[in-house]
Design goal:
Elements (H helix, E strand, L loop, with lengths): L5 E5 L12 H14 L3 E4 L11 H15 L5 E4 L5 H14 L3 E5 L8 H14 L4 E5 L1 H4 L5 H7 L5 E6 L4 H10 L5 E4 L2 H9 L4 E4 L6 H12 L3 H17 L7 H9 L19 H10 L4
Parallel strand pairs: 1-2, 1-8, 2-3, 3-4, 4-5, 5-6, 6-7, 7-8
Length: 293
């Protein structure tokens, strides 16, 4: 299997005013991303409001994404859960409908040990023959997938990469240095993604790509090729967006920005609430400065 590289959008899930999933707009977003050069589309991750979609909706979003992409770009399906059995069921469904990768987040809330994390991911890989990208985001999960545990998991068949979302470049460098060649390290942190790729990372699972898909594709391509000048030119342009898409918890500011740009409605599901109006001029200025509006 060819190693996945480039810009992987962590796609927001568009919602109608009644908070039901807007599948029509979801299909339009997928087509738009493909036209703009996005290299892979990741659905029902954190940015896709996975904590508040039902299991039925979760599965349908994956199915629709696979159907709409029609193999034009790979689909990465968020299949993570803090129950190993549930994560296996989601992975089995995603594989059955034709997704290309599963994204498996470190289990949240129940605080497994490193051995528990190893056994969790290993059990999923054993149960479902389906390429897995690990996802380490301790700022959300509390559980932190440590370096040595990742190295153990690189030896498990079917585990092919990690979304490293700590934003710690030294930590990412150690991973890039020590993992085998078949295992890819991806950024999950837009502000530091360019640095991670210039150090040998293979791509970026990006929030910013939701509103700047072409720019993020070009940034990733340049950084992976070692074209520092081009990568940093784009990075400097996008920095205000990288920063201000996180003035409140993701995807609150992103949904506002997408609505402001006419990409989808602003609806979120509780417990997420609309962005504070005090941030609107700040984010609008970031969009202007970055050339997005």
């Amino acid at each position: 299997m060819t190693q996945l590289t480039g810009s992987i959008v962590a796609l927001a899930t568009p919602l109608l005013p009644d908070t039901s999933v807007d599948y029509s707009t979801l299909r339009k977003l997928i087509d738009w991303h493909i036209a703009k050069g996005t290299d892979c589309i990741c659905v029902v991750g954190t940015t896709g409001e996975s904590p508040t979609v039902s299991v039925q909706e979760h599965c349908e979003i994956i199915r629709v994404a696979v159907e709409q992409s029609a193999k034009r770009v790979p689909i990465m399906a968020g299949c993570g859960a803090n129950s190993t059995a549930e994560a296996i069921e989601l992975a089995q469904f995603a594989k059955k409908v034709g997704a290309d990768y599963q994204l498996q987040v470190a289990p949240y809330y129940n605080k497994p040990t490193q051995e528990g994390l190893f056994q969790h991911f290993s059990a999923i890989a054993k149960a479902v023959d389906f390429p897995m990208i690990l996802y380490n985001v301790p700022g959300r999960t509390v559980a932190d997938l440590q370096h040595d545990t990742v190295l153990r998991l690189t030896q498990v068949k079917g585990i092919v990469g990690i979304k490293e979302a700590t934003g710690n470049i030294e930590r990412a460098q150690w991973l890039i240095r020590d993992v085998p060649s078949h295992f890819a390290v991806y950024s999950g942190d837009d502000p530091t993604a360019v640095a991670l790729m210039l150090c040998g990372g293979k791509g970026n699972v990006s929030v910013t790509a939701n509103i700047a898909p072409q720019q993020m594709h070009e940034l990733c391509k340049a950084a992976i090729q070692g074209d520092i000048q081009t990568a940093m030119r784009i990075q400097f342009k996008l920095m205000p967006v990288h920063k201000n898409l996180f003035v409140e918890a993701n995807p609150i500011p992103l949904k506002w920005a997408m609505a402001h740009m006419g990409l989808c409605g602003p609806t979120l599901r509780l417990p997420l609430t609309p962005m504070s109006s005090s941030y609107e001029p700040i984010l609008e200025q970031a969009l202007k400065t970055s050339g997005l509006i």
